Amino acid sequence: MPPHAGLVHLEGYDWRDSNIALVNSDIDHKVKYQSATTEPAWNDGIIGVRPGVFIWRIEDFEVVPWPSKRYGSFHEGDSYIVLKSESIKADGHEDKLIHDIFFWLGRHTTQDEAGTAAYKTVELDEFLRGTATQHRELQLSPSDAFLQLFPRVKILRGGVQSGFTHINLDEEVQHVNALLRVFKHPGAAASRDAILVHEVEPSWKSLDEEDVFIFDKGDKVFVWQGKRCSPMEKLKAAQVVNDLTIAKHVDVEVLSQTEARSKIIVDALGGQEIDSFSTEFHCARPVSTATEREVKKLFRLSDAEGDLSFDLVKEGNGIEKGDLDADDVFLLDAGKSIWVWEGQGASTVEKAMWLKVVQRYVSQQQNTADLSVGKVRQGHEGQAFWTAVEA
Gelsolin-like domain spans which residues (predicted)? Predict the structure, then answer.
């Protein structure tokens, strides 16, 4: 069955239900733009005007600004919208803004929050007059483009709908018996030094000798350096500890796994019966390591012959800009990511069907469910898209 036939919504991460006949019509755009002009989050005189990174969290169906001092920190129980606006030279003329919108879905976010983030992402794109590149970001498989937005990404437990929350935004950060894992993202090719910080279960079973762990007991902070951790992980852990101790002046003790005294951290995490020197500490990292497909593929979605078709145009590393046709919509399976490119002359039907086609494609392939998905319109492509095409 071709990807454009018998399409169904993917459970949990569908963008929106809609009347396909009206999607991408003039009426559709006017209605969405009118809705966008009433959203306070976008109408602050800054969004769409100034370059920068802006973040909002979804709270009870509302788009709530995320405090700038928390940028790079996300709760696994929440959904967020992240906008990156970058000023570039436009063919030698005056500067113009290129926009990337990421809707980030924590692995424990609710369907209501995920759906609201997705819908509001479309609305924000309308507010920006359809010039933004849209990205679906899943907590377990962050894209290189997303990781490059922040010096480090910090994932905390809990969320707005959860009673288990370590951060009170009106107060200083208070971590008690929290265990943070600091590690290099194993799949970040473009971001070689992409360091993630994940809050994990405060147990000795969470330890891994290839990473660094920060154990905050409230009155003291311990750093446990696995015997195979990297210098970059040690450096990033030191920065995280600095952030933690700015608000509260407590003692910090850094211990290598190879030191006898490091046993006190294992004991504090419930491993009193564990022999630290004979035990090998291994725990799977909280990120996806989906296998990258070796062959890139480019597909065309077109109704030029009357019926809607979805056909393989080219595969391999010879895919280039000239393979794209302004009259159609294309899906690029770049191995580590999936992109949809919408030509300026694409028909209403082609524009309306791209989402269902990509959902169907992902459901039929192996190792694609956790990949980031991006959508871009001709003339507003960012560097991430062209890198995926030409790499």
Answer: 63-146, 195-245, 321-386
Instruction: Tokens for 389, please give them.
Output: 């095409």
Q: Which has the higher per-residue pLDDT, 12 or 137? A: 137
Q: Give the C-alpha distances (Å, rounded to integers) separating 365 from 291, 293, 316, 361.
A: 12, 10, 17, 6
Task: Indicate the Cα dihedral angle 144, 146, 151, 157, nearest 10°.
Answer: -110
Q: How far apart are CA 326 and CA 305, in angstroms?
A: 16
Reduce the DSSP state of residue 181 to 3 states and report it.
Answer: strand
Banded model confidence at residue 4, pLDDT cuts 50, 70, 90: very low
How remote is the C-alpha of 263 from its chain's centroid?
A: 36
Q: How far apart are the first and last CA of the chain?
A: 30
How do residues 38-85 score in pLDDT, each as one tens digit?
Answer: 889 998 899 999 999 999 999 999 999 999 999 999 999 999 999 999
Sequence-separated (6 or more) residues with CB below 8 Å from residue 252: 220, 221, 222, 223, 241, 245
Per the structure block, which two tokens stand in for 236? 């990033």
Distance CA 256, CA 225 (A): 5
Residue spans of alpha helices (H) in the chain: 26-36, 111-127, 144-147, 231-247, 263-268, 348-364, 383-390
With vertex at residue 346, the alpha carbon angle to CA 341 and CA 350, rounded to the nearest 5 degrees, is: 80
Mean pLDDT, rounded, for 344-359? 85
Q: In order of start, what are the domains of the chain with their CATH numbers?
A: 37-140+142-167 (3.40.20.10), 172-268 (3.40.20.10), 288-391 (3.40.20.10)
Q: What is the largest CA-CA distance in the chain?
A: 74
Q: What mean pLDDT comes out for the span 278-305?
A: 82
Give the Cα-Cα-Cα angle 289, 295, 296 (nearest 5 degrees): 95
Neighbours of 306 (CB within 10 A): 6
**Better-scored residue on pLDDT, 5 or 132:** 132
